[in-house]
Here is the input.
Amino acid sequence: MKKTNGQVERRKHTRFKVKGAYVILRPYDKKLGTIVDISVHGLTCDYFCGEDPSTKSTTLDIFTNGDFRLFGVPCQTISDFETLKTSLPSVRKRRCGVEFGDLTRRHISQLEYFIEKYTTGEVEA
Here is the structure.
């Protein structure tokens, strides 16, 4: 495991920076977030919410403003924490990390395509 800024880097797979792509985390909260980075095994996103999240995500949808859509990706929430208090006390910015679950061949193929076409380079450790 690598150390970055005094913290142990636990990820085993290369992460890629993402720009202009979004995720909907499900089932209950239907949180809409902006994807920060992604690998073939998970992603990190930022989102706004009115209160602490009450449920952990079990599926997600990935999409862009353009032509990319990937629905029903199984996942498990690994981390979810507040990153910024806004001027509105009832709105908080949060960062969520999810690990993908058992993916179909189609999911894997689409994720590889997404990484190839919609990322802007590797995240530096």
